[in-house]
Design brief:
763 residues, transferase, alpha/beta, binds glutamine, methionine biosynthesis, eight-stranded parallel beta sheet, single chain, 28 helices, 5-methyltetrahydropteroyltriglutamate-homocysteine S-methyltransferase activity, binds zinc ion, EC 2.1.1.14, 5-methyltetrahydropteroyltriglutamate--homocysteine methyltransferase
């Protein structure tokens, strides 16, 4: 019999219950006990939903982050919180957020606020974890209380469980040595604590433990490969069986290593590493369990169950009881329940599966293999109909779009002339001062804007009424910018709920869920749009707003668009064609918008690519290919304009060292980036590369409510000017201002303009 199991379940709740409970607690509106109860209820519900499986995960639930949970389990708390003596959960929030609650901070007097832990992306997902901190003196100490409590809870409910932990090598690899010491030197000590943890679990009667080592799908140096070997040889004497889980990609050169580790089972991502499975069968020792992740844990499409069974049948034959089935990775990365979607177009809905539906698919696969396809004949037939319908749907396939894609020529990516020639024409046209000032696009999303949008969606406000409110907000933004004396203005993005959703809603080929939330970090969730079909733009998306804004001022008004790569990377994308094909389609659609803006007399157009860097593949060897089509897509979008039209791009980061050549190759006339927190040091990459075009390095951090002083911004710009010739520098904030209040924005920008004036006076 085949065993079915799951690697992890989304914990935020189908209605985002955990988010609301956390935020209420942090605001001081509810008690810690209430929050703990919500956690308990969610765990129970989620085990209930997983009761169709042979083994459900325990320990995958986290109040904030599973990596931070692991740090607490290993007793690896940053020194700054070690003497806290309140509730451990409060201390946990202090590491995550710098404080446990907004008001009535527990132990505020005795223990005080602390710096929040650093956050970074979990492999190539949009989930962010709290980075474990190490020093040469880090001392680990087991605290299994959380795991044991959840294990006991599951036992009471009669759930067949498999505890889930992050493996020791991944834990070290994703952390940071604060003193630049060698993290691997901590491994022997860390392994002692892991051994103790496994023994503790064995004493509870646990049979299997899932140990996540996704680091095995990345490029490992010989030292790290050796660490993997060492770790599992040392843990081999444990009384529990280890299921070593890898996911998010192929094992590639780590395959032999992974196959031969002394563990009882190995889990492989059979979506992203399907081609490795058959060769692996030959490599795998005869006693070992092979768990195949056959349901995509990263996307929302129904699995083609019949095709999967065709592929699986001979493998099942060969492995017998040693075959386990699971989703490819934790379901943390998909929404909870498609059944909640009552407004989603029924045809599109019939092609989708969220976490709950994915577990049902798993169940069908296992039943078919265990008892024959007859036993699930109806489910298989229904699945077949949905798969076929999607494959043939006219909503997915638009021959006109495909035809245009066939005619992509290199000329489409080419500006008429090189930057120096363009820059001269643009300078003559715009006549901007030295150190020109601008902003990144959005102005505060005020209560009025949000209310109007709510009313419009609820049908309480008609189109004209809604437009009137938005126009009033745009007019306000323009007035304020003129009063501040900014040089290049923006309309402020009042009409945009979200920089991807706004465009997705107007493009053919996109659908939107109501409850398709996915945890991004802590209580924050995103609802990625669903890119399901060939992309086209039925009509202009931004022109009337930008035209209106331009009509209010004689200063240049910057048109504002989201770029194709960011649209792609922040969406659930098609699995029936390569990502780059979808990206080129987006590029062509947004290019039309660029050209329409230009036709409407808009001479400066910004194309945001906030997520370009995020899309970099896990393995460096795959970067080139990604960057090649990503940059080509941007160029297709941007480069149809005349020399006089100035193209800007914006990116919310500035670590460009390893991709600076490609950034330069995007050839935007102006790039604005986030630099204020790094003291302009990150501009070194541009300096070293002799980056040829204009740069607006952010001079103040928009995440903070603090009003930046002009002197500080002048000093930052001087540092910038030491690296980049002053005539190619712009002055702007780090990012958009939508999350700030007008009362913060106005004095901040006033100081920024004054800083620019001082710089001009000095020059
Ligand atoms: N133009 C967008 C804004 O100003 C850019 C946001 C972003 O880069 N994340 O909000
Ligand atoms: Zn930004």
């Amino acid at each position: 019999m085949i065993t079915t199991h799951n690697l992890g379940f989304p914990r935020i709740g189908a209605q985002r219950e955990l988010k609301f409970a956390l935020e209420a607690y942090w605001k001081g509106q509810s008690s810690l006990d209430t929050l703990k109860q919500v956690g308990k209820d969610l765990r129970q519900q989620h085990w209930q939903l997983q009761s169709v499986l042979d083994l459900a995960p325990v320990g995958d639930f986290a109040f904030y982050d599973q990596v931070l949970d692991m740090s607490f389990t290993l007793g690896n708390l940053p020194v700054r919180v070690q003497d806290f003596h309140g509730d451990p959960l409060d201390n946990y929030f202090r590491v995550a957020r710098g404080r446990s609650a907004e008001s009535a901070e527990a132990h505020a007097q005795c223990c005080g606020g602390v710096a929040a832990g650093e956050m970074t992306k979990w492999f190539d997902t949009n989930y962010h974890y709290i980075v474990p901190e190490f020093t040469a003196n880090t001392h680990f100490k087991l605290d299994a209380s959380r795991l044991l409590a959840q294990l006991a809870e599951a036992k009471t409910l009669g759930v067949q469980t498999k505890p889930v932990i992050i493996g020791p090598v991944t834990y070290l690899a994703i952390g940071k040595a604060k003193d630049d010491s060698d993290r691997l030197a901590l491994l022997p000590q860390l392994l002692n604590v892991y051994a103790e943890l496994l023994e503790t679990l064995a004493q509870q009667g646990v049979a299997w433990v899932q140990v996540d080592e996704p680091v095995l799908v990345t490029e490992l140096t010989p030292e790290w490969q050796h660490a993997v070997n060492l770790a599992y040889h040392q843990l081999k004497s444990s009384r529990v069986k280890l299921l070593l889980a890898t996911y998010f990609g192929p094992l590639a050169d780590n395959q032999y290593l992974a196959a031969n580790l002394p563990v009882a089972g190995l889990h492989i991502d059979a979506i992203n590493a399907r081609h490795e499975i058959v060769p692996l069968l030959a490599m795998l020792p005869a006693h070992k369990v092979l768990s195949l992740g056959v349901i995509n844990g990263r996307n929302i499409w129904k699995t083609d169950l019949n095709a999967t069974l065709d592929w699986l049948a001979p493998i099942a034959e060969r492995l017998g009881d040693r075959l386990w089935l699971a989703p490819s990775c934790s379901l943390l990365h998909v929404p909870v329940d498609l059944d909640s979607e009552l407004k989603l177009d029924s045809e599109i809905k019939s092609w989708l599966a969220f976490a709950k539906q994915k577990l049902e698919e798993l169940q069908v696969l296992a039943t078919a293999l265990n008892h024959g396809r007859e036993a699930v004949k109806v489910a298989l037939a229904v699945n077949q109909v949905a798969i076929e319908a999607r494959r043939l749907s006219k909503r997915v396939h638009n021959p006109a779009v495909k035809a245009v894609l066939q005619t992509l020529t290199p000329q489409l990516r080419q500006r008429q002339n090189v930057y120096t020639q363009r820059a001269a024409k643009q300078a003559a046209l715009f006549n901007l001062p030295k150190f020109p000032t601008t902003t990144i696009g959005s102005f505060p999303q005020t209560a009025e804007i949000r209310q109007a949008r709510r009313q419009f969606k609820a049908g309480e406000l008609d189109q004209a009424g809604y437009q009137a409110v938005m126009k009033a907000e745009i007019a306000r933004s323009v007035r304020e910018q003129e009063a501040l004396g900014l040089d290049v203005l923006v309309h402020g993005e009042a009409e945009r709920n979200d920089m991807v959703e706004y465009f997705g809603e107007q493009l053919e080929g996109y659908a939107f869920s109501q409850f398709g939330w996915v945890q991004s970090y802590g209580s924050r969730c995103v609802k990625p749009p669903i890119l399901f079909g060939d992309i086209s733009r039925p009509q202009a998306m931004t022109v009337q707003w930008i035209e209106y804004a331009q009509s209010l001022t004689s200063k240049p008004m910057k048109g504002m668009l989201t770029g194709p790569v960011t649209m792609l990377n922040w969406s659930f994308v098609r699995d029936d064609q390569p990502r780059e094909v979808s990206c080129y389609q987006l590029a062509l659609a947004i290019r039309q918008e660029v050209l329409d803006l230009e036709k409407a007399g808009i001479r400066i157009i910004q194309i945001d690519e906030a997520a370009l860097r995020e899309g970099l593949p896990l393995r460096k060897s795959d970067w080139k290919k990604y960057l090649q089509w990503a940059v080509a897509s941007f160029r297709i979008t941007a480069n149809g304009v005349a020399d006089e039209t100035q193209i800007h791009t914006h990116m919310c980061y500035s670590e460009f060292n390893d991709i600076i050549a490609e950034i330069a190759d995007m050839d935007a006339d102006v790039i604005t980036i986030e630099t204020s927190r790094s003291d302009m040091e990150l501009l070194d990459a541009f300096d070293d590369f002799n980056y040829p075009n204009e740069i607006g390095p952010g001079v103040y951090d928009i995440h903070s409510p603090n009003i930046p002083e002009p002197e500080r911004m002048v000093a930052l710009m001087q540092k910038a000017a030491a690296r980049i010739p002053a005539e190619r520098l712009w002055v702007n904030p780090d990012c958009g201002l939508k999350t700030r209040q007008w009362a913060e924005v106005i004095p901040a920008l006033r100081n920024m303009v004054s800083a620019a004036q001082q710089l001009r006076a000095q020059a």
